């Protein structure tokens, strides 16, 4: 009877379990940048066609629940350490471009409901989920861009990635300690020139229910070429790749060869359109022993690298004082063609911007003021920042400047941010160029999404606020307490004791008696006088 029941269960249980419709892939891209530095990009992609969150196996259940609870269409969080130097490294990969600091963008399906409260609650959940410090986005650094309807956007220029963020990011992977994820060690990632992590998830809505989900986890790191002239993956990441991820249907190592970067080991590669692109299938363990796979960075300090022309974005201050100054954003276009671009700059509400001073001037052969179309989301004290959105035209071979004046607001003591003496960060400007006009701009053309825009990020700025002396109350308290401690005892004794006159003869007799007392008697008398008080 027991054997019959077991056989029936073995037949019925597989029929109840539906095959998984989730696909997980992992890729590692290794190449050299324009100045010879080494860049690595980990790309983990998880796609799901499940329409019910209970049927999900690999997709993080918490994200599915958040998308259903807040009616999200797209969510993207980027946290970076350092600043991407376009003049040295070239453009960022279109799908992995990140700003300096922390950046969060969310798109809701229903734009008519109370999205402000949803944004408020969503930030608190994300802050706890990834161990971040993004509560500063409420409400000082959050806006709704008018050019991108339905989106909420926030940026903090002073918040960088840390070990806790990386560990929370790795927990979202189906394979946390095997496959390419085993190479991600905080000690090697956070001691580099640039490091960033990205979490992006979107879904297709189907009558208000769950649709196709797409989760993309990206880790990008730039290493100093002087430290890695000839290296292996083990030397680069301080970790070995032991096991393959059992749930990954694709695991590849992509190597972009160049004049200053090559591989020295014999490898079996897949067919690729780019002859300089080496594609290695990591699921085929017999094809390569990665621990012995060597990279060659052919670098010489005497060599001069021929950098390809790049559109540069540089932010800086002019005429800065304790009252205010001017913010200048310089854009250089070295190409022989003009580009249509979209400029976006967020200014915290603690900085009062004079919009009538906003100018856009380009100098080609002659210096002239250019026309532009702008949208402005005005700031409100304690509520939201100022957002400047401009549609501009960058002439060929031109240097353009966007300038505007500002003054630092005089705040109440309750409105100052923590550590106000260190100043307040202004998020870097963002310049978006249509990919139709910039097919030659991307550094990694093989992996470029033609439907996306090439984004160039400016430096975040630090503005010192006029702050009071927060230590003054503490100093006053210490001074008063010290004064009381020194003078209170004597003044209290003089004001409470009764003064009694003695005749001169009695005083002399008392002094003679005291002079004849022994040391023990004097000590005993002193204690008696103390306790008698």
Assign a percent range to the helix content.
Answer: 10-25%
β-strand percent reads 25-35%
Number of helices: 10
Rg, Å, rounded: 34 Å
**Oligomeric description of these chains:** single chain
E-strand count: 25
Structural class: alpha+beta
Low-confidence stretches: 1-18, 442-448
Largest sheet: 10 strands, mixed
Task: State the end-to-end CA separation.
Answer: 99 Å
- Gross geometry: extended
Which strands sit side by side, in order, in the main sheet?
5-6-4-3-7-8-2-1-10-12
Mean pLDDT: 79
Number of domains: 2
Pfam families: Gpi16
Organism: Meloidogyne incognita
Keywords: Membrane, Signal, Transmembrane, Transmembrane helix
Protein name: GPI transamidase component PIG-T
């Amino acid at each position: 009877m027991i054997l019959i029941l077991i056989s029936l269960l073995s037949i019925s249980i597989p029929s109840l379990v539906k095959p998984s419709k989730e696909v997980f892939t992992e890729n590692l891209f290794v190449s050299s940048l324009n100045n010879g530095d080494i860049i690595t990009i980990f790309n983990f992609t998880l796609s799901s066609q499940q329409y019910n969150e209970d049927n999900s196996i690999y997709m993080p259940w918490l994200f599915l629940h958040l998308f259903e609870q807040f009616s999200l269409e797209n969510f993207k969080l980027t946290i970076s350490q350092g600043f991407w130097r376009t003049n040295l490294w070239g453009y960022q990969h279109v799908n992995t471009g990140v700003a300096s600091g922390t950046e969060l963008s969310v798109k809701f399906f229903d734009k008519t409901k109370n999205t402000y409260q949803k944004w408020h609650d969503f930030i608190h959940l994300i802050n706890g989920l990834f161990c971040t410090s993004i509560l500063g986005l409420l409400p000082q650094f959050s806006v709704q861009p008018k050019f991108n309807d339905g989106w909420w956007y926030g940026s903090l220029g002073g918040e960088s990635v840390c070990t806790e963020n990386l560990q929370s990011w790795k927990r979202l992977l189906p394979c946390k300690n095997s496959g390419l994820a085993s190479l991600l060690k905080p000690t090697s990632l956070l001691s580099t020139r640039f490091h960033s992590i990205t979490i992006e998830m979107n879904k297709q809505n189907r009558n208000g229910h769950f649709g196709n989900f797409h989760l993309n986890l990206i880790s990008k790191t730039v290493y100093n070429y002087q430290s890695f002239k000839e290296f292996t993956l083990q030397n680069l990441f301080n970790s070995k790749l032991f096991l393959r991820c059992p749930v990954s249907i694709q695991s590849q190592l992509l190597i972009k060869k160049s004049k200053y970067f090559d591989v020295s080991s014999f490898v079996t590669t897949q067919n690729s359109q780019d002859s300089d692109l080496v594609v290695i299938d990591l699921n085929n363990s017999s094809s390569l022993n990665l621990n012995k796979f060597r990279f060659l960075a052919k670098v010489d300090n005497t060599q001069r690298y021929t950098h390809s022309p790049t559109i540069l974005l540089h932010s800086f201050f002019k005429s800065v004082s304790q009252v205010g100054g001017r913010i200048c954003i310089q854009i250089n276009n070295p190409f022989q063609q003009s580009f249509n671009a979209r400029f976006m700059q967020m200014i915290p509400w603690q900085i009062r911007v004079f919009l009538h001073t906003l100018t856009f001037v380009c100098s080609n052969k002659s210096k002239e003021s250019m026309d532009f179309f702008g949208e402005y989301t005005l700031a409100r004290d304690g509520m939201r920042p100022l957002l400047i959105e401009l549609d501009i035209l960058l002439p060929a071979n031109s240097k353009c400047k966007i300038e505007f004046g500002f003054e630092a607001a005089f705040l109440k003591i309750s409105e100052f941010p923590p550590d106000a003496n260190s100043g307040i960060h202004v998020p870097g400007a963002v310049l978006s160029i249509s990919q139709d006009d910039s097919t030659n701009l991307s550094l990694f053309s093989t992996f470029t999404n033609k439907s996306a825009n090439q984004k160039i990020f400016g430096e975040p700025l630090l503005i010192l606020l006029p702050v009071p002396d927060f230590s003054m109350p503490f100093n006053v308290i210490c001074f008063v307490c010290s004064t009381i401690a020194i003078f209170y005892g004597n003044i209290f004794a003089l004001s409470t004791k009764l003064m009694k006159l003695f005749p001169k003869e009695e005083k002399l007799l008392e002094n003679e008696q005291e002079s004849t007392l022994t040391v023990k008697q004097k000590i005993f008398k002193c204690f008696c006088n103390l306790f008698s008080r």
